[in-house]
Amino acid sequence: MGKEGRAKGRPMLKIKKIDHVAIAVADVDEALAKWRAAFGLEATVREVVESQKTEAVLLPIGDSNVELISPKGNEGLQKYLEKRGPGIHHIAIEVEGIESALAFLKGIGVQLIDETPRKGARGHKVAFIHPRATGGVLVELVEEDHA
Ligand code: ZN
User: What is the pLDDT, as a whole number, of residue 34?
Assistant: First the structure.
């Protein structure tokens, strides 16, 4: 195997941008009305994400988004809201090659919540990194699923 081949197979972290900042809310419609009134933002995506048991609404800002999420059976998010009230829940970083990014992070000892990606809003591949690894912020990796 040549040098190039090895470089391709090695886990790498390729960060593209902040995909979204997610805000936990109890009522998506109520939050949506506030964001619309304050900033004139309109939702481009609204869906119940079965795998996460949440409802998600995306409000694009430039090439990034604000994501409003509310629990639809997601106990963790429900407890989060009860304990802390609505507020910033996580930030999502778009990466290229999410499996490779996870392998890279695991390899350097970063604590992961998801070692393999699962299906998130918009059918994207997503995986969460433990807040302990980032100084208290829940970080989600996201990649468009081209499959
Ligand atoms: Zn998210």
Answer: 96
Which residues have CB less than 5 Å away from ligand 1 (the ion)? 22, 92, 140
29-35 long-range contacts, CB within 8 A, separation 24+: 31/57, 31/68, 31/70, 31/86, 32/57, 32/59, 32/68, 35/59, 35/66, 35/68
CATH 3.40.30.10 holds for 3-143: no
Q: Does residue 146 register a pLDDT over 90? A: no
Is 0.85 topped by the overall pTM?
A: yes
Centre of ligand 1 from the C-alpha of residue 1, in Å: 38
Q: Tell how far the Cα of 113 is from the centroid of ligand 1, in angstroms.
A: 14
Q: How far is CA 75 from the centre of its chain?
A: 17
Tell me the domain boundaries of the chain. Answer: 3-143
Across 9-35, average pLDDT: 95
Q: What are the φ/ψ torsions at residue 76 (nearest 5 degrees)?
A: -60, -45
